[in-house]
Structure formats: C-alpha cells, structure tokens
Amino acid sequence: MIHWESHACLPLHPQASFAPIDRLHAAGVDYVSINVGMDMNPVQQVMAVIAGFRATLVAHPDKYVLANSVADIEQARANGKIAIGFDLEGAMPLLEQPEMVALYASLGVRQIHFAYNRNNSVADGCHDVARGLAPLGVRMVQAVNAAGMLMDCSHTGRRCSLDIMAASAKPVIFSHANPLALVAHGRNITDEQIRACAATGGVVCVSGVSFFLGNTAPTAQDVARHAAYVAHLVGVQHVGIGLDISFHQPELNDNPPGDYDPGYWWPKSAGYDRTILRATYTPVETWQLLAQALQDVGMSADDAALVMGGNMLRVAGQVWH
C-alpha cells in the first residue's frame, strides 16, 4: 500500500536540501506533497522555489519523480523512488487570476488552499474575521477543479471552508488539520467541517504539529488518537496523514523579502507562542510507528493502510488528470 505524506515543508529557498525527503523515503513514505509558498511569499519567491525544486528533481532522476498521476506514484514506488508533488498555501500567489491555477498545475502544484491563517481577497483565514468565500473564490474553486488539483481547506476559516466544500464539484481535503474537539486551537477543525469534508468524498489528514496535537513532544500515538477520532466520526475511509514537519536549514534564509511580521501570520492571541518556530513536530520516524499506533487505537491493519495512504490515493485518482 502507498504511504502518502500530505504536507511537508522544506525551506522556501531554491537551494533547499532534499535530504529530509530522503529521510521520509527511508521511513517508508512513497509520496510527499512539498510546500512551495504561502500567502506571505511573493510570486517571485514562489517561482524561484518551484524552479529550484524542479531542478533538484531533474538532477536526481534515480531518487525522485514529479508525480502527475496515481500511476506515476505507483511506478515510482516499484522503481524504488519517492514521488513528489507541490502545494501552495494561500491564494495570494494566484494574483486574483483564476488562470494562474492551471499554470501552477503545469509546474507540479497538485494541491492548494486559499488562505493562510489570515483573510485575503479570495478566502478567509482561520485566525481572522469570518466573511465567507468571495465571489472570486467561487471562480477559483472552479479553476482548481478544472485543473485537476486537490482543493484543500487547511488554515481556512470555518465558514469559508464550508463554502468551499459546497462549491467544489470534486472531493475536498484537509491536508494537515486536527479535530477541535480534542484540542481547542483555532487551527483545528470542527465536527461540522469534518463531516462536510467527508460528504464531498474527501479526507482529513491529521497533522503532527505540537500546537494542534496538544503535546509539546508529539508522538505517533498522539497522531493515532486524532485519526481515530475522525474515523469514529465519519468513517476510516476519510482519514489520512499530513504530519506537516518543517525541516529547517539554518544556513538558508527563506523569509519573505520586505516587511515580514511573523506575529501577524501566527498571532499570539490565537494560541501561538510568539511565532510558529516555537512549534515542535513528530519525528520523521513516526511513519515507521504509525501502523502499530493506529492498530493500538482499534483499527485493523487494512484500516491503518487506508489512513496511511490508501484514502489519499483514492481521492487523487478521482481529482488528478
């Protein structure tokens, strides 16, 4: 069975090392979605990152495959390689042009959500004033569906995420989000959001970030507990994994250019300790422990395989083209 990591973060720098991706592969991951930009990153930075990451993939065809289809992922695994896709966190890099979605898709972006914690002209962030999906946002959802890209609702405001799921003609995912019922943090999602995601045929992928798991030293057991909650609420077929590990490389400065204020994007009032850099993450080796941890919370081996990749593989097969 394919093991699918729905979200991971390398430094947003063209020269970022892919050594962490090699570690994920060694831990059993077959596909990983790598972030290439957020709302605070201007287009020139996002494009430089995509160009640099694509160059790394081209330089190492023995290790990496830029996946455009489920068949690409399965073939990569058969050849001992790890398949990779890119994701965007926020609509600001789209420059208010739905046509940008297809351009990013052609460059390897396989999933997107529309707001990173804060509101923009398209959608609402989870740490901002609720307005709902803008009319432009409806057109953006249609563009995402048309481009065969996964529509993600992580970091998105609750009301706005429900609007997105109602507007989408394809299954919608949360690539890295946890149940609010278990940990009261504004980035976590309500039972209503979880049910709405499942109603689209989508998947809620559990994050491994300390803030959202409620443990300063998060473990596979914490991830499994959150996965079990989602499975109990809407069925195991709607659960996945998106550990959201940020692999910092101190020698690289990947801050956005200009006047960048981390306290705006990760407000202390919303439950962060000054900046997201205070977060801790489940270790890469969590992937080697998940199957047992999921079975320890009552899942069968087949259920665990669905959570660790089978469900996301199914949804990608329905959405990608």
UniProtKB/TrEMBL annotation:
It comes from the Bacteria. One of its GO terms (molecular function) is dipeptidase activity. InterPro entries: Metal_Hydrolase (IPR032466), Pept_M19 (IPR008257). PROSITE patterns: RENAL_DIPEPTIDASE_2 (PS51365). The keyword Protease applies. SUPFAM superfamilies: Metallo-dependent hydrolases (SSF51556). It is an enzyme of class 3 (hydrolase). Its EC number is 3.4.13.19. Keywords: Dipeptidase, Hydrolase, Protease. This is Membrane dipeptidase. It comes from Rhodoferax ferrireducens.
